[in-house]
Amino acid sequence: MTMPKRDTYTPDSLLTVAVQVFNERGYDGTSMEHLSKAAGISKSSIYHHVRGKEELLRRAIARALDHLFAILDEPEAVNGRAVDRLEHVTRRTAEVLMAELPYVTLLLRVHGNTDTERWALARRREFDQQVAALLKQAAAEGDLRADVDVRLATRLLFGMINSIVEWYRPERGTLAAREEVAEAVAKMAFAGLRV
Amino acid sequence: MTMPKRDTYTPDSLLTVAVQVFNERGYDGTSMEHLSKAAGISKSSIYHHVRGKEELLRRAIARALDHLFAILDEPEAVNGRAVDRLEHVTRRTAEVLMAELPYVTLLLRVHGNTDTERWALARRREFDQQVAALLKQAAAEGDLRADVDVRLATRLLFGMINSIVEWYRPERGTLAAREEVAEAVAKMAFAGLRV
């Protein structure tokens, strides 16, 4: 038997551990026992910080959502033609996904089995709808090609952005590397690969 | 207790059932018991058709791979400038993904825990590499933008195509609907959304 670690966790550092376990085992497959083992502190020490695993999920998801929704308030997302705002939001969403990778990964994998998960899905849908509205406006302003359905374009755009979680490795992720990936997404989606 | 169904399965119809169960429960989480229940025939009846669940996985994956690799032999994938061949392969890969949705979904979710899964991953990598080689050639011919890394572009291209499995519903999937989605992917990736 190993000695339990002295509990020096802050809410943030405990969240880091929990999110890693959630992403490895799935949220449903994670017990307080798993969290206790991964953190190296007793279950009652964890209960000292949070009411349970659902609170950890809620905090983690809230962190991802706060970063994502903050993009929509950035000046470049508010001012100018819709197509330029949309391109900014696309680039920044990719950047946030990489900078907050474990949190956004968790958000993207949520199923909807608990209240927290259903709230996460609803908020995520809200974000998607705000981006879809930008696409619609850009199309109405004549800046988007008319031969691709707006709903379909929204799905493919998020499909491309969200696929980054499948291969992006944050340990190699300098800010410059993140910006290169986000630029590539924006260029491909809006200008296309063909010269 | 319900009466077991008379075993009227063909290899193909049994595969259809197995693939559905694999996609619902995950391959690792599927037992012969689950397959027997879903098919409505006894385990020994299933063993009459196949040696075990790994053979069903291999057949299902082989079906997806055969369809995907066949694309690379189509005249439009062989003749002409690399960029046009690449655009054809992109469109057709999206179409095959939708037409063979359960089989390709299974292929995309394989982990690499068994010999069959490792073989599937290796073949999938081979397909990706052949597409990456086309991208490289198109870049060398000056038809692709030079400011997006070829490896990154390959990943984003597959990311966009593969994301279709997340939302595409085959029951609404007429040939025309599939062609519209595939066209949208090709247009977005090669010409971009911006007018």
UniProtKB/TrEMBL annotation, chains A, B:
PROSITE patterns per the UniProt record, alphabetical: HTH_TETR_2 (PS50977)
Keyword terms, alphabetized: DNA-binding, Transcription, Transcription regulation
DNA-binding region (UniProt annotation): 31-50
Top-level taxon of the source organism: Bacteria
Keyword Transcription among UniProt keywords: yes
Pfam families: TetR_C_24, TetR_N
Signal sequence, start to end: none
UniProt keyword Transferase, yes or no: no
GO molecular function: DNA-binding transcription factor activity; transcription cis-regulatory region binding
Residue ranges of domain HTH tetR-type in the record: 8-68
Protein's name according to its UniProt entry: TetR family transcriptional regulator
